[in-house]
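Researcher: I'd like a candidate sequence for this fold, 339 residues long. If you have to choose between options at a position, lean toward the conservative one.
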């Protein structure tokens, strides 16, 4: 497989956005950061499309014009950023935006999810590009303010005007991504990696922590010692930070010899065949085949409910009731003055 192209500031022309009306659907985590970055890059012709809520108030406080009528916002858009939660994008976009958008609009998504699963209604004459920062919105904003870039994926998903890639790069530069290098990707790749991490990698890490906690508790270790040793000391965060800087394995050289040998030797002795089969099953039979997408789409209304009628809140409650969850609650209550 060939290495993907990486685009930098010199590859992008901000002039392509000069006379375009730029509309942001949503002003949350990513919307607020990207809109402010784009404005600071010299573009004042920005409109925020948002329902009446605190995000709209925040947008006005930041000096942006807000339009609550989505149809009116759609009619004005030359470039449309879709930055509302994945689960509500199909309903909002297909109902209020798609019928009103210009035939040659450039639609920008920050997640490949709804594009890959073909849940959004586009016209063949429209450009659809992905500009997907790999950081939370607050970091997208703070790194821009510091004059630094941030990791980002970019791609053309639908080519309607013949100018989609140039517009994708202009947008990437405008929000500050090409300063560090925007990596050529695709909605499929971004979706596969994102959902795989969320449904395979991190669930197994959560399970490993829970099981390790219970085994060590049974062996006589205190809740206080376990919580601090396993995560509250922030050592895992420091390890991942070192991994980003020095390399996933080479960061081990910052540990003691006992730790280095124990981790490397222990990993070499483990048989990864079972977990590999488990991972492949999730990737191909849950993520890429659309099974999870259908299940999650069916929960859109339920995710708007309050309390335990919301399936997400049910999962939080179940995990908070676990041995590890209850132990952490006790420890945090006891040590409230020092953490």
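Model: Candidate sequence:
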């Amino acid at each position: 497989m060939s290495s993907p192209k990486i685009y930098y500031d010199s590859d992008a022309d901000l002039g392509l956005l000069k006379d375009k009306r730029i509309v942001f659907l949503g002003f949350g985590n990513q919307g607020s950061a990207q809109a402010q970055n784009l404005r600071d890059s010299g573009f004042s012709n920005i409109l925020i499309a948002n329902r009446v809520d605190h995000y709209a108030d925040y947008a006005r406080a930041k000096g942006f014009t807000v339009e609550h009528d989505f149809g009116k916002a759609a009619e004005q858009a030359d470039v449309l950023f879709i930055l509302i939660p994945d689960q509500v994008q199909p309903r909002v976009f297909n109902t209020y935006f798609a019928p009103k958008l210009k035939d040659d609009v450039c639609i920008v998504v920050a997640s490949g999810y709804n594009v890959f699963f073909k849940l959004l209604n586009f016209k063949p004459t429209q450009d659809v590009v992905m500009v997907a920062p790999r950081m939370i919105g607050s970091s997208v904003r703070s790194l821009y303010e510091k004059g630094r870039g941030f990791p980002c994926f970019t791609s053309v998903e639908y080519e309607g005007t013949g100018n989609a890639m140039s517009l994708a790069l202009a947008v990437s530069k405008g929000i500050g991504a090409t300063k560090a290098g925007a990596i050529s990707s695709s909605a499929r790749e971004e979706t596969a990696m994102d959902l795989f991490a969320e449904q395979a990698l991190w669930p197994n890490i959560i399970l490993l922590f829970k099981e390790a906690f219970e085994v060590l508790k049974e062996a006589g270790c205190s809740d206080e010692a376990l919580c601090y040793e396993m995560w509250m000391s922030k050592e895992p965060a420091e390890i991942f930070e070192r991994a980003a800087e020095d390399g996933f394995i080479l960061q081990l050289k910052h540990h003691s010899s006992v730790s280095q040998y124990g981790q490397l030797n222990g990993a070499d002795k483990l048989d990864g065949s079972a977990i590999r089969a488990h991972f492949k099953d999730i990737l191909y039979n849950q993520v890429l085949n659309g099974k999870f997408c259908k299940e999650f789409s069916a929960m859109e209304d339920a995710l708007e409910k309050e309390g335990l009628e919301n399936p997400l809140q049910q999962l939080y409650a179940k995990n908070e009731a676990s041995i590890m969850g209850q132990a952490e609650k006790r420890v945090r209550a006891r040590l409230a003055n020092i953490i």
